[in-house]
Each structure stands twice: as structure tokens, then as C-alpha cells.
């Protein structure tokens, strides 16, 4: 599990007894324009660099792909299988996009790109 952390000054790593490795990567907060809005987003260049150098890219589990960091990861690693979660129980993208939402066009635009 890799995660950006605004408090981290270097890469922190911990291995659990079951073999899962949890890593925290240094991140910064940056204002980024999304459409007509400017939103504060978390950006971690070290996390993306480590993903590029990692040879064991089997599957990416991405939570909230509407964030800048996750959008960049999905763009750079389009060839890697992804499991995408939208703050709901894990579902397929087709059942997610058919649900009634206030920002339906944003989701439609996202799925048209991937």
C-alpha cells in the first residue's frame, strides 16, 4: 500500500506480519485548476517516480480517481490493470456510472478517457 503524506519528509516503510508493505511518500499541497474550479490537491512526485521504477506492477487499486495524483498515475500506467473505487463498495465502472449523481458529466468524462 503506497500513500502520499503531507507530513512525511522522506519515504517511510513498514512491513506487517502478513507481508503487506505500507509506504508513506512525501507530498505537497498544490492548487490545480479542474475545469472552472481551482481545487487544493495532494501531489507526490516521489510516489510517481517510485511507481515508474517498480518492476512489480501487477494491479493498481485506486481510490477516488478524480484526484490529480490518481489521474496522473492512471495516465502514466494505462497498461497496468486497475481496480477503481469511488468511495463506495468496490463495483465495476459500468454499475458506478449508471447511478444517479449530481456530477454525472464529470464521471462520464472520466470513463470516456479510460
Number of helices: 4
Q: Sketch the major β-sheet.
A: 3 strands, mixed
User: Can you tell me the residue ranges where pLDDT is under 50 for at least 5 consecutive residues?
Assistant: none
> What distance lies between the first and last C-alpha atoms, to the nearest angstrom?
23 Å
Rg for CA atoms: 15 Å
> Element order, helices and strands?
EEEEEHEHEHH
Structural class: alpha/beta
Q: Could you estimate the helical fraction of the residues in percent?
A: 25-40%
Using DSSP, what is the number of strands? 7
Percentage of β-strand residues: 25-35%
Mean pLDDT, as a whole number? 78
Which outline best applies? Answer: globular
Order of strands across the widest beta sheet? 1-3-2
- How many domain units? 1
What's this, in brief?
The chain is an alpha/beta fold and 114 residues long. It contains four helices and seven strands.
Task: Describe the 3D structure.
The chain has 114 residues and is α/β, with parallel strands linked by helices. It has one domain. 29% of the residues lie in helices and 32% in strands. The chain has helices spanning 45-53, 68-76, 93-97, 104-113, and strands at 2-5, 12-15, 21-26, 28-34, 37-43, 60-63, 82-85. The strands form three sheets. A three-stranded mixed beta sheet has the order 1-3-2, with helices on one face. Strand 6 (60-63), helix 2 (68-76) and strand 7 form a beta-alpha-beta unit.
Amino acid at each position: 500500500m503506497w500513500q502520499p503524506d503531507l507530513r512525511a519528509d522522506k519515504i517511510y516503510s513498514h512491513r506487517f506480519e502478513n507481508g503487506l508493505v505500507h509506504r508513506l511518500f512525501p507530498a505537497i499541497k498544490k492548487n490545480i485548476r479542474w475545469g472552472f474550479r481551482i481545487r487544493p490537491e495532494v501531489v507526490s512526485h516521489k510516489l510517481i517516480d517510485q511507481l515508474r521504477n517498480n518492476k512489480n506492477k501487477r494491479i493498481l487499486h485506486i481510490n477516488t480517481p478524480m484526484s490529480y495524483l490518481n489521474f496522473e498515475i492512471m495516465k502514466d500506467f494505462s497498461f497496468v490493470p486497475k481496480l477503481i473505487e469511488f468511495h463506495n463498495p468496490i463495483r465495476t465502472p459500468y454499475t458506478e456510472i449508471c447511478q444517479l449523481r449530481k456530477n454525472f458529466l464529470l464521471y462520464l468524462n472520466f470513463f470516456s478517457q479510460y
